[in-house]
Amino acid sequence: MKLLIVEDNERVALFLKKGLSESGHTADHADNGRDGMFLAASEPYDAIIMDRMLPGGIDGLAIIEALRASGNKTPILILSALSAVDDRIRGLKSGGDDYLVKPFAFGELLARLDALLRRSQDARSETTLSVDDLSMDLLSHKVTRGGKAVALQPREFKLLEYLMRHANQVVTRTMLLENVWDYHFDPQTNVVDVHVSKLRQKIDAGIERPLLRTIRNAGYMLTADD
Fold this sequence. Notes:
five-stranded parallel sheet
């Protein structure tokens, strides 16, 4: 990985650079917010290690917010001595991808960076989903079955996306309420059943091999298996 370290503590920065170098990575270092912002915005990095409290007129969270506002999606691990829950929440809400509190174990930091890179690569590479002859383009929001376009409403698209991401798995009503409707309680309505029924009509109607199955007393499953 090519990394950027934005850290004003010289001992911490040297410790990070040494450990990353020994692990086969390269790292640039900025010891203030101004230089950190310049490097982060002008150079391509696989990930950024960002301290929160920085000299130079701009702190770590302001750098992150500016990068995200400009469309920069480089994974960012916030490294900070601020350990309160509210501090961690604020860091993540600003656009940070992970938050590690000082003092820290280098092995944990390296593992977190590896996880961030894997997620970033997966997000960049996955632009389509498919189950049998059902295909979904996540960028254009187009769905086809057997090469024919399927017109879906936004909620139906989100429902189908969740089912496709969990293909060949039983998906419960509660899972759908939480992940498609963002309900963390049961509204005691048949909203899931109604939408699943409409979705089934659109993707399975007139086709000999249905993909969307109802699993009795369990939930639903999107599968091409018999």
